[in-house]
Amino acid sequence: MSANRVPVHIITGFLGSGKTTLIHSLIEQKPVDEKWAILVNEFGQIGIDQTMFEQRNDVVVKGLPGGCLCCQLAFVLQAALVNLLARNKPDRVIIEPSGLGHPAGLLDILRGEAFQDVVVVHDIIATLDPRRLDEPRVRQHETFQDQLAMADAVAITMGEQASAEQYEQAQQFVTELWPPRKWVHCIEHGMLPLALLLNGGQTRTHEGSAIPDTHRQVITTPTVEGSFFDIPPLLGQPQQKTASTLGYTSTSLRWHPNEHFNLDHLAAYLSGLPSTARVKGVFHTELGWKQLNRADGTLTVGSSAWRQDSRLEVITPDNDTHTHTRLLRELSSSGALS
């Protein structure tokens, strides 16, 4: 076994729990002598999260949209990771599975024959939004439970949005997990101390952990359609994709980069969607390129370095068909929000 295996860190967590924000905070603290590779998996078909990382020489970001790494994209993940390790030679790899992704299949790949002498899986970190514990649909979701059960450590997020009571409930919930987590950290302002990542050891053996039947049933033929390097849609002909699995539906849309959106109209429209809708997007607006991110009904707007196209992903519970139908009707027409 090689003594120079590349450490791999898995940052898991349910939809909208702050995984990408946490990874951004780690990148800000990255040792100057290290090169990192970030693999970002998304449930949606076109990929939004990779657009939210700035291009830099010491951090390579690869998006893997269109399914979950433990099932639909297992083959694609293996190929992408082999390519990243060979071409970029990173000192460290961080993998962010989809919010509906199950860690068991990912561990199987990373501990398989192809990578057993190449990488070593360090502590699995799960992000937990305390507010989700108040939602029976989420708390009872098999994937939500398994993500926390397989985690070696837990980062409790949303410090500015959750109440003191919700935070106390989350801490109590985590302390009752068995075996005890190596650490539990309450994140403020999206910042996780880098030492918690660098000083962690290898993940547990996770004996008996397996991909649940609900995930096995959605395994499909691997695809790289909708990847990071897709050419943009034609002017006036936005591209749309939908996917449904594990009780949720994703609506994804892309527009030509020269199409402009009115930021006020866009923010008002997205803010008007039901609080159950998870919204992520990057748009070319009259004020420049902007990121829009909404979780639990709260919309944030920031600048974006992305220029390839405008794109939007909205994930809703399957029973919220009104939101899904409304999105397709109002956003699939070019300039609907301009």
From TrEMBL:
Checking SUPFAM superfamilies in the record gives: P-loop containing nucleoside triphosphate hydrolases
Every CobW C-terminal domain range: 250-332
Q: Which domain of life is it from?
A: Bacteria
A cellular component term, taken from the record's GO annotations:
cytoplasm
Q: InterPro entries per the record?
A: CobW-like_C, CobW/HypB/UreG_nucleotide-bd, P-loop_NTPase, Zinc-reg_GTPase_activator
Purpose of the protein: Zinc chaperone that directly transfers zinc cofactor to target proteins, thereby activating them. Zinc is transferred from the CXCC motif in the GTPase domain to the zinc binding site in target proteins in a process requiring GTP hydrolysis.
Q: What is this protein called?
A: CobW family GTP-binding protein
Q: Which organism is it from?
A: Halomonas qinghailakensis
